[in-house]
Design a protein that fits this description.
Radius of gyration: 20 Å
Number of domains: 2
Mean pLDDT: 91
Shape: globular
Distance between the termini: 46 Å
Number of strands: 10
Low-confidence stretches: 1-25
Order of helices and strands: HHEHEHEHHEEHHEHEHEEHHEH
CATH class of the largest domain: Alpha Beta
CATH architecture of the largest domain: 3-Layer(aba) Sandwich
CATH superfamily of the largest domain: Periplasmic binding protein-like II
Number of helices: 13
Structural class: alpha/beta
Helix content: 40-55%
Strand content: 15-25%
């Protein structure tokens, strides 16, 4: 594994004349726009980076995926750069930023350890997949026994679940946008017209359904796997089921904005995000392993154990804005 230290990063770049010593001395902070994990996990990751690289603090800005993208766009428009590393929950956001010339060209050395599937969807020069997670079915294990639990996405359309389903909103959650698009590709928009008839409780983040089920306000949900496992690890009475009619995997990229205030610290942070220890930790938390040689969380079946509903970056880029408008028309929010 290739892992840079702060001293090596600064010294190496200084020797090439790419960074002045006085500037290097100010590289003591990273502002991280992150939507891939919840706020508690993001803060823990920021502290772990600082522990690994003393002297570099991480300012965590955890918001939903669409909000993070809008916030970065506003920074760019107003020429007030704040973000050093942008970790998106919608891979098309990174592709859009690249096409607009708004990302720094940087290919992390640690990207060499990515599994071929994730190397293939990384740009290779401007953005790199650093996390991946599947959408799953979750339920209150004390109120929804296995015999009646939803086992497919279409099971959520049964009228017996009316008023008992929690979902995120695709206009806020990048992962939810990808899931809605994947289900639309599989079953058509009629699926969501039927889902709307069940009057789901709609939050914003893909983390919200776990909160609602934990509180007993809903019983079942399609949601982001790591959020569910994080809830379980904290004692939430929920259980995870893999949808038999197709697993939806959301790939999450990270990149450095072209105007990053602390570009050298940002490069160091990117290397850390793609390191083997971080990959092992996020896999233990319920994400899918992105590096070769890293095992999934115990109890999580391998992806090739069932059907996978796959979307390309271009499908996501074109399709998510369209389904957001359809969602608002259908659900009235």
């Amino acid at each position: 594994m290739h892992c840079l230290t702060r001293r090596h990063a600064v010294a190496g770049l200084s020797s090439l004349g790419l960074i002045a010593p006085a500037r290097a001395a100010t590289e003591d902070a990273v502002t991280w726009y992150i939507s891939q994990v919840d706020a508690e996990q993001a803060e823990a990751m920021g502290k772990a980076f600082t522990a690994a690289h003393p002297g570099i603090k991480v300012e965590v800005v955890r918001v939903t995926g669409q909000v993070a993208f809008q916030r970065l766009q506003m920074d760019i428009k107003n020429k007030t750069p704040h973000c050093d590393v942008f970790s998106a929950s919608d891979i098309s956001h990174a592709a859009i930023l690249k096409d607009r010339g708004q990302l720094m060209r940087y290919a992390p050395a640690n990207a060499a350890g990515l599994a071929p599937t994730y190397r293939a969807v990384s740009d290779g020069e401007y953005y790199t997949v650093n996390n991946a997670a599947r959408f799953v079915l979750i339920r209150r294990k004390d109120k929804v026994p296995d015999a009646v639990a939803p086992k497919t996405w279409t099971d959520l359309l049964d009228p017996s679940w009316k008023g008992q389903i929690a979902t995120a909103h695709p206009a806020f959650s990048g992962g939810m946008g990808t899931w809605v698009l994947a289900i639309t590709k599989t079953y058509g928009w009629a699926y969501f017209e039927k889902l709307a008839a069940n009057n789901p409780r709609i939050g914003r983040s893909a983390v919200d359904p776990v909160t609602l089920l934990t509180a007993g306000e809903c019983l079942v949900s399609p949601t982001y796997g790591p959020a569910a496992y994080h809830g379980i690890d904290k004692g939430s009475p929920i259980v995870v089921d893999q949808a038999a009619d197709g697993v939806v995997v959301v790939v999450f990229p990270s990149a450095i904005p072209a105007g990053a205030p602390h570009p050298e610290a940002a490069k160091l942070f990117m290397e850390w995000l793609l390191s083997e220890p971080v990959s092992r930790q996020i896999s233990a938390d319920g994400s899918d392993p992105i590096r070769t040689g890293v095992a999934p969380r115990p109890g999580v079946p391998p992806l090739d154990a069932g059907k996978v509903i796959q979307l390309s970056v271009e499908e996501i880029r074109k399709g998510v804005p369209e389904i957001i408008e359809k969602w608002r028309d259908t659900f009235g929010s």
